[in-house]
Write a structure and sequence with these properties.
Layout: E1 6-9, E2 12-16, E3 27-29, H1 33-41, H2 48-71, H3 85-100, H4 107-125, H5 131-168, E4 176-180, H6 195-204, E5 208-214, H7 221-232, E6 237-240, H8 245-252, E7 258-263, E8 267-268, E9 274-277, H9 280-289, E10 293-297, H10 321-324, E11 325-328, E12 349-352, E13 365-368, E14 375-378, E15 381-383, H11 394-397, E16 413-415, E17 421-423
Parallel strand pairs: 4-5, 4-7, 5-6, 7-10, 10-14
Antiparallel strand pairs: 1-2, 2-3, 8-9, 9-13, 11-12, 14-15, 16-17
């Protein structure tokens, strides 16, 4: 069974609550943009591509309900039903602006909102346009974003895996090991993943020895979410604490054929400076010292051509309690030598792991300087530095980035993480 973090059909959106993973699998309904804002802000859904998709689809859910009320002649169901095309476009733009405030560091969300506002404004400006036309144009565009994200991730995976085997692998090694940080897979995207997509591609081509993945303090996206995905897909993997990375590189680089550190990104500046989950910068420093390639895997929508360097990236700071407390279920006692002991059902608790009165600093992201990054892999190919040590984006941006096309999308559509779609009430599991 494929891992599905976003369940969508026309007018309905459900997200896998990542705060309850890996011990509980619970889907939360997203009925409107306020639900999406709180789900993103509280990190029920996280990962730059997934945030953008969920935000876009939450407005599509509202739009579909407005269209349905129009079909039933209910002119009082929503203010936009009787509004002009321009007023409808303006209302949807305000919803998108509101959603962007939920996680300001991730550029994908702002990029998606900007493109969708162009879609609705274009639809509203057409001769004879009305409220329905604007709503339907928005919904089709948001749904297409969901489909495109999966395809883009698969392409990122193929490009990244090929680059690692050509440029990072020791010629004597037929298989390589890699290190990854945070969660960049199906749970962080519409499906397949960015950095974890590269890992999936290595695994599917029988080129992967194993993955070392960090727990990723303080929110433990690695141990909770990446571990959940790797175990789900039977990919060989070993968990390490964040502070073990240096020792791992120093003592096991050759024995384990560690070829690269692969991470995702929340925003990439024009010069290649990369904002990603806190701890990424430290891994890049360690990789450079130990002669291990450092790869950023991200779609072109993560590259912010308006941000010249990392100094211009706003870094979100989160509550201290995320550092001083931790949440999880109780486990049955054992001899302390084995992991994965039995979970005591219904026993999820939040416990303090710091001295009472502790003050904590909790930036959600850090910025890795471009000079520590060896390659940035996108859905259009791998970007490397020129002879002057500068990243050149021409190869991936020369082909014009087309606006989301006007497409006819079936009224029932479930997009699965393997890139397939279940249509008209077909299987979604």
């Amino acid at each position: 069974m494929v891992l599905q973090a976003i369940k969508y059909s026309r007018g309905h959106l459900g997200i896998l609550d990542q705060l309850r993973l890996p011990h509980e699998v619970v889907y939360n309904d997203i009925k409107h943009s306020k639900d999406a804002w709180h789900a993103i802000r509280s990190m029920q859904v996280r990962g730059a591509p997934a945030i953008a998709i969920v935000a876009a689809l939450s407005v599509a859910v509202e739009a579909a309900k407005c269209v349905e009320s129009l079909d039933h002649g209910n002119k009082h169901a929503a203010p936009s039903n009787t509004a002009s095309a321009n007023a409808t476009a303006e209302h949807m733009g305000l919803q998108l602006d509101y959603l962007v405030t939920s996680r300001p560091t991730a550029v994908n969300l702002a990029d998606a909102a900007s493109k969708l506002k162009v879609i609705v404004n274009t639809a509203a400006s057409k001769s004879g346009s009305d409220c329905r036309a604007v709503l339907e144009a928005y919904t089709a565009a948001a749904e297409q974003m969901l489909i495109d994200d999966v395809k883009d991730n698969e392409a990122i995976g193929k490009h990244g895996a090929a680059w690692i085997m050509e440029h990072a692998r020791n010629p004597r090694d037929t298989k390589v090991s890699v290190i990854t940080h945070c969660n960049t897979g199906s749970l962080a995207t519409a499906g397949y993943g960015t950095a974890l997509g590269v890992i999936r591609s290595l695994y599917s081509s029988n080129s992967l020895r194993q993955v070392f993945y960090t727990e990723t303090r303080p929110y433990n996206q690695g141990s909770r979410l990446t571990g959940y995905e790797l175990i789900h897909d039977d990919i060989p993997a070993t968990l390490i604490t964040d502070s073990m990375a240096a020792a791992l590189m120093n003592t096991r680089k050759n024995a384990e054929a560690i070829a690269a550190v692969i991470v995702g990104a929340d925003r990439v500046a024009v010069n290649g400076d990369t904002a990603n989950k806190i701890g990424t910068y430290a891994l890049a420093v360690l990789a450079k010292y130990h002669g291990i390639k450092f790869m950023v895997a991200a779609p072109r929508t993560t590259v912010d051509m308006e941000t010249k360097t990392g100094a211009d990236i706003h870094i979100e700071e989160r509550p201290q309690i995320e550092v001083t407390d931790i949440r999880g279920p109780r486990v049955s006692k054992n001899d302390g030598t084995t992991a994965g002991q039995e979970i005591v059902q219904g026993s999820v608790e939040e416990v303090s792991i710091a001295a009472r009165g502790t003050r904590a600093w909790n930036p959600a992201f850090d910025v890795t300087p471009a000079e520590l990054v060896d390659a940035i892999v996108t859905e259009k190919g791998v970007v490397e530095k020129d002879e002057n040590g500068l990243f050149q984006w021409g190869n991936v941006f020369d082909a014009a980035v087309a606006d989301v096309p006007e497409v006819e999308v079936p009224k029932t559509m479930n997009v699965l993480p393997d890139g397939t779609t279940a249509l008209d009430g077909g299987p979604s599991e």
